[in-house]
Each structure stands twice: as C-alpha cells, then as structure tokens.
Amino acid sequence: MRKSAATITSVVFFALAPGLVAGFMPWYLTNGWTRNEGRDGWLLAVLGVALVVAGVAVLVHAFVRFVIEGLGTPAPVAPTERLVVGGLNRYVRNPMYLAVVATILGQALLLARPILLAYAAIAFATMAAFTLLYEEPVLARQFGAEYTEYCKRVPRWLPRIRHGSRS
C-alpha cells in the first residue's frame, strides 16, 4: 500500500473507530460531555485532562507508525504489509487499545461521570476479546515466526520498560 493511501485510510479509520469509541460514545453517555454538577474534584479533573491528552497523543503516534513503519493501517480491511514493532509497540503490543481506554477514563475523571468508568471496562473487555479471538490469530498467520518472537518479547497489556530499547 502506498503511504498516501495508507494515510487517507488511517485518517478515516481514526475518525470511525477511536472517534466513535473514545469520542462519540462518551459524548453521548454524558449528554454532550456535561460535567456532573456538585463535584469539586479539580485534582481529578486535571488528571482527567492529562489522561485524555496522553491517550490522544498515543493514538496519533501509533496510527502514524502504522503508516510509516507498517505501510498500511490499523484497519482490518487495509492491514499493514510489515509488522509494526517500533515506537510504543516496543513496550506493549496494544498501545492503541490502551490509549482509547485511557482517553475514556480521562473523560470519566474530568467530567466526574461514573458511567464512563463502566463504559471503559466494557470497551476494554470488547477490545481484549477482539485481540484474542481475531487479531492475534490473524497476525500469527500473516507474520508467522516474526510475530511469535515479538509476542515473546513484548507483553500484550502491561508495558514492560527496558533500558537500551531502540527504534
């Protein structure tokens, strides 16, 4: 896939997938991102903003890596030609899913909306099931031994920070 096509497809997929899960649904569940009245948790709100900003930054970084390093997109309909193992994927196999959950949790804290905590749990469970039942078997077939070795080195959900990592 050419980088220009991968970029356009990634932008569309970004709007459809993370945009729907971490943008539209929290907006819908909170009646337009309205803050829960009577809550004066400014420290939680600041932490929420930090999680939202970090989540969006990780998502953008990961999508760019898929275009540049993988020559494709995160979308199952336009997968990468190469296995993406650089950037944040050196530390955890699923930085995009973790970023989506962080963004939802950040909104929960910022808006003081417990419903978003429950929604984040449901979103994570759905992404974990998709990872185990679809994504990992497909990647194992597509990339074979390279993917198997990657799985041995890099954890699925909890980042492992190691000194001396490159890429």
Characterise the protein shown here.
- The two termini are 22 Å apart.
- The chain has one domain (3-153).
- It contains 5 helices and no strands.
- The mean pLDDT is 89.
- Helix 2 (42-68) packs antiparallel against helix 3 (95-111).
- It has 167 residues and is mostly helical.
- The chain has helices at 3-29, 42-68, 95-111, 114-143, 145-153.
What characteristic shape results from the CA principal axes? Answer: elongated
* Strand coverage percent: under 5%
- Low-pLDDT stretches are none
Biggest sheet: strands, sense, closure? none
Secondary structure tally: strands: 0
Helix content: 55-70%
Structural class: mainly alpha
How confident is the prediction overall: mean pLDDT? 89
Number of domains: 1
Q: Which helices and strands occur, and which strands form pairs?
A:
Layout: H1 3-29, H2 42-68, H3 95-111, H4 114-143, H5 145-153
Offer a concise description of the structure.
By secondary structure, the protein is mainly α. It has helices spanning 3-29, 42-68, 95-111, 114-143, 145-153.
List keywords for this structure.
single chain; 167 residues; mainly alpha; 0% strand; elongated
